[in-house]
Amino acid sequence: MRYVVTSRNAAAESVYGLVRAVLGGEIPLRIRCWDGSEAGPPDAPVRLVLRRRRALRRLVWAPNELGIARCFVSGDLDVESDFFESLSHLERVVGSQSGTLDVDGAVKWDVIKTGLRLRAFGLPPKPPAEEIRLGGRLHSKRRDAEAISHHYDVGNDFYALVLGPSMTYSCAVWGEGVTSLEEAQTAKVDLVARKLGLREGMRVLDVGCGWGTFVIHAAREYGARAVGVTLSQAQADFARKRVAEEGLSDLVEIRVQDYRDVRDGPYDAISSIGMAEHVGQSMLPTYAKALYDLLKPEGRLLNHAISRKAGVPGRTTDKTSFINRYVFPDGELEPVSVMAGAIEEAGFEIRDVEALREHYALTLRAWVANLEEHWQDAVRLTSEGRARVWRLYMAASALTFERGSIGVNQVLAVKTSDKGKSGFPRTRTALLS
């Protein structure tokens, strides 16, 4: 593929050649640099802008996914082409499983020479303010609360722009005839309610209740008495306001509480929707046993969680992971077999597993569209860096779901009675009716 260089000695020529050498020349790319120079095919589908020389220093000190994320979040690097298409082409970097650029000795020497010529070496730039590194014991109650606060306490108004009126931050269900995000999220919470067999007067616990969408649906549509727990004060404040506005305060209680501290069982049903990713593999036995102990005999658990493929190492706790430093600190994705195994070992009987991978890709694309449509408001409500974090995270995640690298599953389980009774209907059709 031929490319154009605006000036023989311009920065873009050197950067363009270096990028092609490092990435094997496989990305149809055009680059514009801080000095106004450009290189690469004019019609390339990927158009990157290095707004500051500092971007190169970031990559010198972190030649991996984290370095690229720091460039984008800080605004040192921008994408002027279609964001999804560009990320798709750049997946060898952004979605790399190794996380670090793997180059041979000759290319490394070229990197050094180019860096010297472009004055890219120096002390490491300070990471963007949106980056976090947690301290303390992994998955202690204090550290988990800090991790949740980092992700969720960025402003309810910001989340409202991204999530839409449902304020539901998990995979929607896009059934036949469903065209809007709001319809798809309503379909999801109703699917959970039906799988749990909710009826009037039943007592249901929602672990990681978010902004209260499921507990409100369970109370309003099924007459259930619902308790929602979250570690986010901002979420709890918002959820309580919604509950009051719906006139459901006599049926719904919202608590700021760790699932390990819930002691007021038994419950007839428990939902955990998009929360188990924060638990961590080492804590899965504790998590599953705590929920088992809170249920009545014949009580049901619906565990809705993102999963990774078996045999593929988890990346979210990797120190070079964008997700770990900027989005979900300490989050861990486990294969559905590991999650199901922990649930079974706690004493549950698994009755149904449903994969919703393609649904999450559609959900994420809808969230990205909302963010892009309300970009200026999102920046005003948080920061440009925070808005950039969410745009990169959601778009890259959508592509990852579409590729099948990760999935999302609803595992439905029951605490059988001493006599082995489950209370389940004989068919799946009857279960969902």
UniProtKB/TrEMBL annotation:
Q: Which family does it belong to?
A: Belongs to the CFA/CMAS family.
Its name, as the record gives it, is: Cyclopropane-fatty-acyl-phospholipid synthase
Tell me the domain of life: Bacteria
Q: Which UniProt keywords apply?
A: Lipid metabolism, Methyltransferase, S-adenosyl-L-methionine, Transferase
The protein's matches in Gene3D superfamilies, at most eight in alphabetical order, are given as:
Vaccinia Virus protein VP39 (3.40.50.150)
Work out whether the entry's keyword set contains tRNA-binding.
Answer: no
> What organism does this protein naturally occur in?
Amycolatopsis sacchari
* Pfam families named in the record: CMAS
Recorded GO molecular functions are:
methyltransferase activity
SUPFAM superfamilies, per database record = S-adenosyl-L-methionine-dependent methyltransferases
Keyword set includes Lipid metabolism = yes
The major lineage groups are: Bacteria, Bacillati, Actinomycetota, Actinomycetes, Pseudonocardiales
Question: A GO BP term, please?
Answer: methylation
